[in-house]
Amino acid sequence: MKGWIFGDENQKTWTQKIYKHTNKFQNPLHQNYKHTKTLEALFKIDKNKIFSIITFVGDSTFKTEMPVNVT
Questions:
Q1: For residue 55, what is the DSSP state?
Q2: Has residue 1 got a pLDDT over 90?
Q3: Contact 35, 53 (CB under 8 A)
Q4: CA distance 44 to 40
């Protein structure tokens, strides 16, 4: 992902801005929550043993403060 990234952990969607182009995408924290819940149920793993980490790869810059598990 590239461009400026705007988002808050409680927002349903986040925003990617590249020059004058703006794109909305699903909050990755919400998306990852669904993934961790699926892993817990599928493999019967204790929820305290699964850690949600969101990593953006590419030339992106966060323009809003991000939670500690977003990098």
A1: -
A2: no
A3: no
A4: 5
Q: Answer for the pair 14, 25: CB distance below 8 angstroms, yes or no.
A: yes
pLDDT computed for residue 67 by the predictor: 92
Quote the tokens at residue 40.
Answer: 């817990």
- 23 DSSP β-pair partners: 16
What's this model's pTM, rounded to 2 decimal places? Answer: 0.84
70 and 54 Cβ atoms separated by less than 8 Å: yes
Please give the pLDDT value at position 37.
95
CA angle 1–55–12, rounded 5-degree value: 75
Q: Which of 25, 5, 43 is nearest to 35 (CA)?
A: 43
3-state secondary structure of 61: strand
CA distances for 60 relative to 2, 6, 26, 54, angstroms = 4, 10, 16, 13
Q: Which two tokens stand for residue 62?
A: 């966060």
